[in-house]
Amino acid sequence: MNLKSITLLLTAAAVPVFAGPLGYALCQTGCNGLAVACYAGAGFTFGVALPAAPPVLLACNSALGGCMAACAVVALTPTL
């Protein structure tokens, strides 16, 4: 059996693998770190409730939501 045949056989037998909970958690942690930086850059503290959210914080929250959604896609997409 030559190398090409072995590679083809192993590729065909490969089982899809998901990033799993650890990969998802690491991605979420990165998103939260970016959100904290976004809040700090705007002069606010992440996690402190305000009576009304300024537009810059709404933008930070929107970016956080997009990042978390991307994490879900990455974590749930099978890879070989």
Describe this structure in words.
Residues 1-19 form the signal peptide. α2 (20-41) runs antiparallel to α3. With 80 residues, the chain is mainly α. The chain has helices at residues 3-13, 20-41, 55-76.
Would you summarize the structure shown here?
By secondary structure, the chain is an all-alpha fold. The chain is built from 3 helices and no strands.
Topology overview:
Layout: H1 3-13, H2 20-41, H3 55-76
User: In angstroms, what separates the terminal alpha carbons?
Assistant: 23 Å
Per DSSP, the total helix count is 3
Question: What structural class should be given to the helix and strand makeup?
Answer: mainly alpha
Q: How big is the Rg?
A: 20 Å
The geometry reads as: rod-shaped
String of helices and strands: HHH
- What ranges have pLDDT less than 50 throughout 5 or more consecutive residues? none
Number of structural domains:
1
